[in-house]
């Protein structure tokens, strides 16, 4: 497995020690994609699809409330020690993003939305989070993963088949357009995972694809529009 870089490893280690992943925090985005090497037994291709300076952590708000447990020390204190500063948002006094001076590292907290994409509270993690639609599909039934840094860090990531299908949806929802660099990266990650999973875990991939399609017409539309740009990936999914 490819080792986690020092900047990412240090913050993941600190968050793990505080209890972030024990309390249901799930790494999403490209840092989760990187950790699929161990889960799938594959080497990720070098290049843009595996590069990131962001750490995105997701948690269900209802879980965060129901746990009646909190990280210790608080994440705001943890970030301060690591020289992260809170970034101002549209909602004064509520922070869901931190940036580390010098390294350019960014930590963001997100939570599933079922309608309005507002800022919500995650009491178990002691932070606020940006609510996003479609995220509930991604972080349902997460799995453990090992980040290779020092003696190793046990974290939590989405299931790779759900990650792949979610990327098809997100690529079409990008606010800067389906042709943007981020959307291209989304489709590249989805393409790589779908090709791998179709060979090694076709049943898991088929179930995730069917589950997303069955949610409703809006979900099917986003998936279909991404696949319009990915004829080879569409062909793979049609054979499942």
Number of helices: 10
Structural class call reads alpha+beta
The proportion of residues in beta strands is 15-25%
**Low-confidence spans: pLDDT under 50, at least 5 residues?**
none
Terminus-to-terminus distance: 29 Å
Instruction: Determine the fraction of residues in helical runs and give it as a percent range.
Output: 40-55%
Q: Work out the radius of gyration.
A: 17 Å
Tell me the major beta sheet. Answer: 7 strands, mixed
- Shape verdict: globular
Roughly what is the average pLDDT, rounded to an integer? 92
Q: What's the order of the H and E elements?
A: HEHEHHEEEEEHEEHHHHH
Number of DSSP-assigned strands: 9
Account of the 3D structure:
The chain has 240 residues and is α+β, with helices and mostly antiparallel strands. Helix content is 46%, strand content 18%. The protein is built from 10 helices and 9 strands. The strands form 2 sheets. Strands 1, 2, 3, 4, 5, 6 and 7 form a 7-stranded mixed sheet that branches. A hairpin with a 5-residue loop joins strand 4 and strand 5. Helix 6 packs across helix 9 and helix 8 (202-215) packs across helix 9. The two termini are 29 Å apart. The model has no long low-confidence stretch (mean pLDDT 92).
């Amino acid at each position: 497995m490819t080792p986690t870089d020092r900047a990412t490893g240090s913050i993941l280690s600190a968050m793990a020690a505080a209890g972030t992943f024990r309390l249901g925090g799930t790494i999403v985005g490209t840092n989760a994609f990187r950790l699929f090497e161990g889960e799938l037994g594959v080497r990720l291709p070098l290049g843009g699809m595996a590069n990131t300076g962001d750490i995105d952590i997701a948690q269900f708000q209802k879980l965060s409330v129901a746990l009646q447990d909190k990280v210790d020390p608080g994440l705001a204190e943890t970030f301060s020690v690591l020289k992260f500063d809170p970034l101002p948002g549209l909602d004064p006094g509520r922070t869901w993003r931190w940036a580390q001076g010098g390294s350019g590292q960014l930590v963001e907290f997100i939570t599933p939305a079922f309608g309005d994409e507002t800022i919500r509270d995650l009491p178990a993690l002691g932070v606020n989070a940006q609510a996003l639609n479609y995220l509930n599909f991604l972080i349902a039934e997460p799995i453990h993963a090992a980040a290779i840094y020092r003696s190793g860090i046990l974290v939590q990531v989405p299931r790779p088949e759900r990650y792949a299908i979610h990327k098809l949806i997100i690529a079409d929802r990008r606010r800067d357009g389906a042709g943007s660099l981020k959307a291209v990266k989304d489709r590249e990650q989805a393409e790589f995972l779908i090709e791998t999973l179709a060979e090694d875990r076709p049943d898991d991939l088929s179930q995730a694809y069917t589950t997303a399609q069955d949610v409703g017409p809006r979900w099917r539309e986003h998936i279909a529009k991404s696949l319009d740009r990915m004829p080879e990936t569409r062909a793979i999914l049609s054979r499942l």
